[in-house]
Amino acid sequence: MEICLSGRAAVAVQFFNVSYILLISHEPCLGGLERTLERQSAIKRCVENICGIGMTLKDNASSLMSSQALFIAGIHTQDIHFRGAISDLLEACRERSGWPVKSLGDELQQIWESQASL
Predict the structure, then answer these.
(1) Residue 3: helix, strand or coil by DSSP?
(2) What is the pLDDT of residue 3?
(3) Cβ neighbours of 52 (radius 10 Å)
(4) Under 8 Å CB-to-CB from 20, ≥6 apart: which residues?
(5) Most CB atoms closer than 10 Å: which of 70, 90, 106, 109?
């Protein structure tokens, strides 16, 4: 399972963005509305970065890793267009790598539906 150097670097950048999303989404919400909007904007930028990189990866190994980053980004996005793009990217990753057998897109759809019912 060899990832080309550019694939490794791309996946590393995706996981840097995932790490940032996880950090800011779990920090205490201090600073009022302004800080909340800044956090949402930062998460949106990270999701855009993760998706943009995910669109460029075509090999099996990086697709496998990228699917994890896309899944986490999907959990943290509210935008319907991003959700559709993430679902498509996850399916493309699954088709290339054959993993996971159960679609992460289906699991993400269930998460989105449960979020909508809150």
Answers:
(1) coil
(2) 47
(3) 14
(4) 42, 46
(5) 70
CB-based contact 52:58 (threshold 8 Å): no
Q: 18, exposed or middle or buried, with CB in 10 Å at 0-12, 13-18, 19+?
A: buried
For tokens 């699954």, name the residue: 94
What is the 3-class SS of 38-102, one letter each residue? HHHHHHHHHHHHHHHHHHHCCCHHHHHHHHHHHHHHHHCCCCHHHHHHHHHHHHHHHHHHCCCCC
With a cut of 70, list the residues of the chain below it in pLDDT. 1-5
What SS3 state is found at 29?
Answer: coil
Residue that has been written with the tokens 């995910």 in this structure: 54
Measured distance CA(57)–CA(70) in Å, rounded: 12
pLDDT at position 48, please?
95
